[in-house]
Amino acid sequence: MIISIIDCHLYTKVVISLIRSLYGFDLSMECTGLTIFDLESLQPVLITSISTSHFKKSATHGQKLKYIEDELIKIRKEYQPEVVTIERGFSRFNTSTQVIYRVHGVVNKLFHDYEQIYYPPKSVKEAICRGDATKKYVQDTIHKIYPKIEFNNEDESDSFAVALTYLIKKNLIDWDKEKIKKMK
User: Is 9 in a helix, a strand, or coil?
Assistant: First the structure.
């Protein structure tokens, strides 16, 4: 919810604007990707990433988590979430998996009042093109429909794909994989 106060000479008027937003996350301690879609226009309104690469090597996980949390709080003030979608993590290396799940905990806490949906990476790929697709192939497929979208890194494109998966699975947008595949 965005509240604007308009102060005129004779009256003060409070304007409340409800912009319903869909958040898509690709969570990481090093670079968290975030895409936000406006649920009215069904268009992306923010594609960004929160990087902790500026921290010294001696920085603690707690310092990085606090930074990620602070950045997300700023964004949440501007874009009122309604649904939060998150790419489900997978266990590859025990220590790095545990670190990533700390970021999941921060996001789960910050957005505890909103519906949170986890999508496995394979489900995201399958919704957009095919389950065995590479990240590049998924990104190329997205660019066929959203040619003006620019991603600064794979985390941003992954977060876009996660949010897009929600729109596709909820039938909020028309997504014909076969038709898109034939597009140049």
Answer: coil
Q: Does position 21 have pLDDT exceeding 90, yes or no?
A: yes
Residue range 38-81, pLDDT digits in tens = 999 999 999 999 999 999 999 999 999 999 999 999 999 999 99
| Pairing mode of beta strands 21-26, 81-87 | parallel
Tokens of 81: 């979430």
Instruction: Assess whether pLDDT exceeds 90 at residue 10.
Output: no
Strand, helix or coil at 174? coil
Question: From CA 12, how far away is CA 99, in angstroms rounded?
Answer: 48
Report the distance separating Cα 23 and Cα 67, nearest Å: 19
State how far the alpha carbon of 63 is from the alpha carbons of 54, 55, 58, in Å.
Answer: 12, 9, 10
Overall pTM > 0.90:
no
Task: Give one DSSP letter per residue of 29-98, joined into a string.
Answer: SSEEEEEEEETTTTEEEEEEEEE-TTS-TT--HHHHHHHHHHHHHHHHHHS-EEEEEEEPP--SSHHHHH
Which residues lie below 8 Å from residue 81, measured CB to CB, with a gap of 6+? 21, 22, 23, 111, 114
**Which amino acid does the sequence have at 136?**
K
Query: For the chain, what is the largest distance between any 2 Cα atoms, rounded to a whole number of angstroms?
Result: 64
